[in-house]
Every structure is written in C-alpha cells, then in structure tokens.
Amino acid sequence: MNKYCFPVLAGFVLLSVFSCDKQVETVSPEGEGNWSVCVPASKGGEATKALTYDEPGKKVLTSFSATDKVYVYNKTKGALDAGVLTPDAEGSSVNLVGSLTGSYSVGDALELRYCPYSSFGNGIFDYEEQDGTFEHLRDFGVAAVNVTAVDAVNHTLTLEDAAFTNPYSIFRFSFVDADTGNPIPIQYLWIKTVMGNLVFKDSPDGTREYYGEMADGKIPREVFRSNSTDPVWLSLCYEAPSVSPEIDWMAFAILDDVNKIVYDMSKMTDGKITNGKFYTPTIAMIPLPKPEVTLTGSASPVEPTQISTGLYKLFSDNYYYYENPGLDITISGDGDQCRFRWKDSALEPEGATVRFSGTSYGMPQGFTTTQTAFIEHLHRGPLTLVLDGQTKIWGSAEHPAILVDKMYGEVVFRGNGTLIIDHVTNSIGTQGIMTADGAGTPSVGVPLSVHAASGYSLSVSGVDNGDGTSTWIYVVAANSGTSIPGIPTFPNAGDPFNI
Fold first, then answer.
1. Which helix (H) or strand (E) holds 341?
2. Cβ atoms 103, 116 nearer than 8 A
3. Which of 1-15, 303-317, 365-379 is the least confident region?
C-alpha cells in the first residue's frame, strides 16, 4: 500500500491513553506537588511520523513523535500545569512521561491537551501558520479525565482512562475552474463561514478567538500558495451555528495572480461537517468577469492596479480596481465590481476618454458596481464616453455610477449606442451621475453638464424603480448629416433662335 509520509506532529484519529494501573507514579519526588508521570498511550497508524496520508485508502494515519507535547489543564482549579508530558518514543504505542507540579484533589476535572506547537503559549491550539501543504498541517487533541485518588505521601495520582479526540477536521481541498474544470493556480485563498465560526485560537480556559472580517478587527482565514495548483491541506476547527446548523455556508475566494482573475464560490454545509473527520471536497470556483481593457491608440492591455476578493477586500471595495488607466481606453467584455479612477495628481493633460465596445460574447456588455462608483473621473477636464452598441452598468442605492470632478462637472457623449445605468440611487446625483471632490466624496448641489459632442445628439430617459433607485437610459447617435440643396432654377437666357 502506497503512503506519502511527511514529518508533521501528532494526533489526527482517535487516540487512547491508559494509566499504569490507573496511577500516575512518582520517582524521587522533590517536594509536595511534584508528580513524575508515566502514562501509557496509544493511537492508530503504522508509520513513525505524526501524520501520514494513505492515498489509496483515502485516510490520514497518525502516530506519536518524540517531540510531541501534552499539557495538563485543571478545569476545576482553573490552572494550567507548568509541567509537560512527552512521548518516550516514536510510534503508535508509547508512554507519556514528564513531571507535573500543580495541586490536585480527588474529583478534579482535567483536560489533557495534545499541543506540539506553542507559538501563542503553552496548551493553546493555534490554527495559524498553515500554508496549505500537508507538511504544515496543525494537529491537536484533547482528553477529559478526572482525578479519582491522590496519595500525597507517595506522590501518586490515580486518573480515569483517557481517550483523545481531535477538536478539528482535516480538509484536502481541490479547487477547479467551473468553466474549464482545470485546477486553479492559487496565489491567495480565503475561507469563511457565513453563520458558524472557524476557530483561530483555542485556549485551555475555554476562550476562543475566530477568523473573520478585517473590518471587525479579526484575522482572515487566508492561505498564500505562490500559484500552486496542488490540493490545499488545512486543519479547520468548525463551530456550527447554535440555531439551524444545517443552514450554513462555507464561502471561498481565490486570487489567481497569474491571470489576475478572482474566483468565488459558496457551498452549503448541510450540518454535515463535524470535527475529527477527514474531508476531500472538490470545489468548482466561478471566475468573476474581468473586462479586457486596452489603450485605444496602441491596443496595449491595461491590467488592474489592485485586485481583491468578495470575502476580504484587502485593497479596495472592488474586485478589479484600475487607477489612472490611461487618457483614452477601450473597455470590452463584462466586469464584476470594477472601478476606474482617474486622480488629478498623476495626469497632466485634461480629460479622459472611455470607449465601450457594447458587446460581450454576442450579447450587450454589462458591469456590476455595488460597492463604489464605476467611473470616478477626479481629474481636470471633461469625461468623454464613446458608446458602441449597448452597455449596462448595475449600480446600487448607495452611490451614483459615475463621478466627475466638481471643478469641471462635464460628461460628453459620442458614438452610436446606448448606456443603461440600472438601479442607482435617487437620493444623490442626477440620472446616475454626480460631481465629487478630489477624494471622491459626492458634492451636493454642484452644477453638472451632461451633453452630446458636436455632431451628435443625446436623449435621456428614466424610470423610478420604487425602491429608492431609478434606471436611466442614455442614447447617443450621430446627427443625420448636412442638408441637401433643392433643384436649382434655370435663369432666363433669352431666345437662342431669335436671330
């Protein structure tokens, strides 16, 4: 049977610990409360490394490492023992040995905490510092036992038998492109739950900290992969919601920095995720549309200056953010949560021109921008929009779709096409467009000029959607051309035959 063995620290499957005649014995005690401990321990697995992956059997095997540590927390007295227990050998059947120094009484409830890592402190389960490889999986275990007898003279404790369980599950995620089925080269991966929690830090006293949104002062559950397409291994401690645990989602977002594409997906947990298991899901991720942006004159591609995800918007409020993309750009295809922003400090010539192709895969092109304005022309001079075919921008009730600098406040339309600004706020702006200051803050009451360029005509119509938003339709077309003169009259030339 083929196995892939990696030097990771101990304890995934069920682990049983049995005392030596149910006693913890002392050897050469140095004083009251100094307990030298020898506890027989065993757990499954054939290898001599802590975790191994049995690929044909689709399971994770486990055994002890001599460097493993087991901490003892007295739940009754609320005290973590300063001593630590360690295996006396490597393998699946060992003795846990060490010296305990705390005070113990009959009936004390103890928690043995298998914790090879101590980056946050002794006995703390730390689920950070996992990079998605098998070698760096976190591994923890807990066992609840009671003290049944205390012999202060011989410095022996009698404990119940102990069985270790794992407070987390191991996941082997495979992420593929939903359109192509190909593995995704991952630069960054973010994972969160919608209703439940993913544990970040689990302390012996029972307090827990959780992964979450940066806006809430928490640390995102993220993994950096350097564009690897290998499966992602993670130890995750999942807390289901207390009410309706079947109604929860695990949400994923991937930033593929090779192709500069954001992938997104959410999956129902259906109450099926329980700690202590090994899961091997394949998640088909949806690529979020990113438009093709080029410099009009040279056709050179323009890539976003910043890319973020829907789960953790680290850089901006949009997936694809373009800052000062060029003074004359052409946008083709669709875009999800795009933002084009011109800042006056970086561009000296006046004005900017944005040309829309109007089509995407034979259909009208469309953009979604529910977080910010789609275009922020915070630069001197007019913003010129050149339409070809039909383009639609889906906005929100929170902001206009287009912002222009209040010192100029001018939007000029050219071309032959239609721009639909759908579901934008009624409370600020005019017809989906508004002036703003240099920071992008809307300027209420500042005049705005929206008109067609010379030689073109523009019509604007709108409808109130009844939900605090309106939809506006801009139609621009070239004028019908110069007038054609009528048939000329013939001047009187007399009678050529009158000689």
1. strand 338-343
2. no
3. 1-15
Residues 138 and 117 sit within 8 Å (Cβ to Cβ): yes
What does the block give as tokens for 376?
């922020």
Q: Would you list the DSSP string of 109-134?
A: EEEEEE-S--SSSTT-EE-----SSG
Dist. CA 377–CA 448, nearest whole Å: 13
Distances (CA, A) of 209 to 115, 120, 126, 201: 17, 12, 10, 5
CA-to-CA distance for 171 and 279, rounded, in angstroms?
5
Between residues 216 and 474, the one the model is more confident about: 474
pTM of the model: 0.74
Q: Which residues have a Cβ under 8 Å from the Cβ of 361 and sit 6 or more positions away? A: 333
Q: Which of 314, 449, 315 is nearest to 381 (CA)?
A: 449
Residue 396: φ, ψ to 5°: -150, 175
More reliable by pLDDT, 147 or 7 = 147
**Ranges assigned E (strand) in 131-274:** 141-151, 156-159, 162-164, 169-177, 186-193, 197-202, 208-210, 221-228, 232-236, 238-239, 249-256, 261-268
Query: Of 412, 298, 403, 400, whose CA–CA distance to 344 is shortest?
Result: 403
Q: For the residues 424-430, what does the mean pLDDT come to?
A: 67
Say how far apart CA 423 and CA 432 lie, in whole Å. Answer: 9
Q: Which of 458, 365, 451, 351 has its CA nearest to residue 407? A: 351
The chain-wide mean pLDDT, for the chain, equals 82
- Select from 8, 238, 233 the least CA-distant residue to 116: 8
Asked if 69 and 123 count as a contact pair (C-beta separation under 8 A), the reply is no
pLDDT digits 0-9 by tens, 222-239: 888 888 999 999 999 999
Residue whose tokens read 């850089």:
315
Per-residue pLDDT band for 46 (boundaries 50, 70, 90) equals very low
Taking the alpha carbons of 221, 224, 227, 230 in that order, is the dihedral positive or negative? negative
pLDDT at residue 461 is higher than 80: yes
- CA-CA distances (angstroms) from residue 40 to 51, 217, 332? 20, 43, 68
How many residues comprise the chain? 499
For 123-169, write each residue's pLDDT tens digit.
999 999 899 999 999 989 888 888 888 888 778 777 777 777 889 99
- The alpha carbon of 413 is separated from its chain's Cα centroid by a whole number of angstroms, namely 38
Residue reference for tokens 């490889």 = 133
